[in-house]
Design brief:
Elements (H helix, E strand, L loop, with lengths): L11 E2 L14 E4 L18 E6 L15 E7 L7 E4 L8 E2 L12 E12 L2 E5 L7 E8 L22
Antiparallel strand pairs: 1-5, 2-3, 2-9, 3-8, 4-7, 4-9, 5-6, 7-8
This protein binds S-adenosylmethionine (SAM).
S-adenosylmethionine binds next to β7.
């Protein structure tokens, strides 16, 4: 059963620091069929329902050329997650594991990622398949799927100088 806000047997919460290091821009909003965490899939599926990723102005200008890619990596902010559980018991059986060994939405920085199929671009909205987040989830970033890129050629002797910061 998906957690809502309880702390289960074996789990450990921490006191969160007062401040944070970085501010994010929410560059859009994701529209999906799921309105509660209990019915939302745990991971997106290639044959899942189509969902809409709305990109806000002025960031929508950055969608130029995105239609060239059949798959995208989507990063989103799991805004309804608590952030303080460092040990978690996904099966509610008292056996807890560290947060960084899980893909749980409950994390210090609740960032979710999915690889999605880009079905269509409609102005500032992307129609995609493969998401697993709630309707209204804030969008953080979009990138072409890394597996579509070939590795750069290996560095050659003399490519870099000592102190080169590039
Ligand atoms: N695919 C992403 C990943 O691996 O980084 C997210 C995986 S996470 C296990 C997916 C679950 O997060 C969903 O089943 C739902 O319970 C929860 N979830 C989805 N959207 C959320 C949101 N906006 N806030 C909090 N929890 C959310």
């Amino acid at each position: 059963m998906v957690r809502l806000n309880e702390v289960r047997a074996g789990e450990q919460a921490i006191d969160l620091p007062a401040g944070s290091d970085a501010a994010l821009y929410f560059i859009g909003r994701i529209h999906t069929p799921w309105t509660d965490r209990l019915t939302c899939p745990r991971q997106g599926r290639p044959d899942g329902p189509t969902c809409r990723i709305e990109v806000f102005a002025p960031w929508n200008r950055g969608l130029d050329s995105i239609a060239e890619f059949e798959r995208l990596e989507v990063l989103y902010w799991l805004h309804e997650s608590r952030r303080d559980l460092v040990m978690q018991s996904p099966r509610s059986d008292g056996n807890a594991r560290g947060v960084f060994s899980l893909r749980t939405p409950v994390r210090p920085n609740p960032i979710g990622t999915s690889i999605v199929e880009l079905v269509k671009v409609e102005g500032s909205t992307l129609i995609v398949r493969g998401l697993d987040c709630l309707d209204g989830t804030p969008l953080i970033d979009l990138k072409p799927d890394r597996s579509l890129f070939k590795p750069l050629a290996p560095a050659q002797a003399g490519d870099f100088q000592v102190g080169d910061k590039s």
